[in-house]
């Protein structure tokens, strides 16, 4: 006899595997889900849709090249008078920053972050 808890755990594990196996990969090899996870570190200040209204620069819908360049500049500490962005981006690799740029460039600048 299979215990209900084990069945639920097995079904959850199978669903997770299917979900992670079916997502779209970014050009650099990082999956969309992984890019979204990386981008979630930006949500507190920029909002889940990349368009926080309270004096924070909107990032949704900006071009990939623009976002990538500014993220790299922050990480490399080449932006004067930054608040926290140089510290936030310091721990990311080029590939991770590119995935974050790809994620936010794919969001609508007008209607928010649903994909």
Automatic annotation (TrEMBL):
GO MF term set: electron transfer activity; heme binding; metal ion binding
UniProt xrefs under InterPro entries: Cyt_c-like_dom, Cyt_c-like_dom_sf
Keywords: Heme, Iron, Metal-binding, Signal
This protein's record includes keyword DNA-binding: no
Domain Cytochrome c: 1-108
Top-level taxon: Bacteria
SUPFAM superfamilies the record matches: Cytochrome c (SSF46626)
Signal sequence interval, chain numbering: 1-26
PROSITE patterns the UniProt entry points to: CYTC (PS51007)
Coiled-coil ranges (or none): none
A Pfam match: Cytochrom_C
Protein name: Cytochrome c553
The organism's taxonomic lineage, starting at the top: Bacteria, Pseudomonadati, Pseudomonadota, Gammaproteobacteria, Chromatiales
């Amino acid at each position: 006899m299979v215990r209900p808890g084990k069945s639920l755990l097995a079904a959850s594990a199978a669903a997770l595997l299917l979900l992670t196996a079916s997502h779209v990969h970014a050009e650099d090899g990082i999956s969309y889900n992984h890019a979204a996870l990386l981008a979630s570190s930006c949500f507190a200040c920029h909002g889940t849709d990349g368009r926080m209204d309270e004096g924070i620069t909107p990032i949704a819908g900006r071009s990939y090249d623009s976002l990538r360049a500014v993220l790299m500049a922050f990480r490399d500490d080449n932006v004067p008078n930054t608040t926290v962005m140089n510290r936030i981006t310091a721990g990311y690799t080029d590939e991770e920053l590119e995935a974050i740029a790809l994620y936010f460039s794919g969001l609508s600048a007008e209607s928010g972050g649903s994909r």
